[in-house]
Amino acid sequence: MIGALHGIITEKEPPRVLLDVQGVGYEVEVPMSTFLGLPPVGSSARLKIHHVVREDASLLYGFATASEAGLFRALLKVSGVGPRIALAVLSGLSVEEFQRAVAAKDADRLRGIPGVGRKTADRLLIELRDHFDAQGGVAGGAAPKGPRDEALHALLALGYKPAEAMRLLDAVPEGAQSTEDLLRAALRLANPL
Known about the structure:
Elements: E1 4-13, E2 16-21, E3 24-29, H1 32-37, E4 44-54, E5 57-63, H2 66-76, H3 83-92, H4 95-103, H5 107-111, H6 118-135, H7 147-157, H8 162-170, H9 179-190
Antiparallel strand pairs: 1-2, 1-4, 2-3, 4-5
Helix pairs in contact: 2-3, 4-6, 7-8, 7-9
């Protein structure tokens, strides 16, 4: 999987950028927040990449910051939200504005984004509230602060819901100190033999 690209911008046509990386042109779709911050054609740029492989296509989505990429990935986990809506959300709101809207349960703010109706806005508020509470922000934003945070991030990356990941870590016996020990113990609790 492709995690980042660094190359020369050869084309810019919203929401698409063509990035030449050592002679190979990568077509990357980006939210407007990233697009507007990119330098002009002919300049060097580095993008965090979310790579989606489908049976009929290999798609690249690019982001200027780790917090944008983290929010994009979190949005994709919400039922009914695909890459197009996730890009629209990031184009309509900054990561911080989105987090504030979720914290304030401001469905009207989310419905102002093209493609986000009442049901989708409600799902975003419900499903991402726990995500932000568990992480103290957006995945990919701040670095984990210790073994427990690292274990939490690992469980979230494995697909556990934030509330379930926190419950598992809370149930780990006191002796586990390292990230690996915490993660092993939490996974044993999740999948007892």
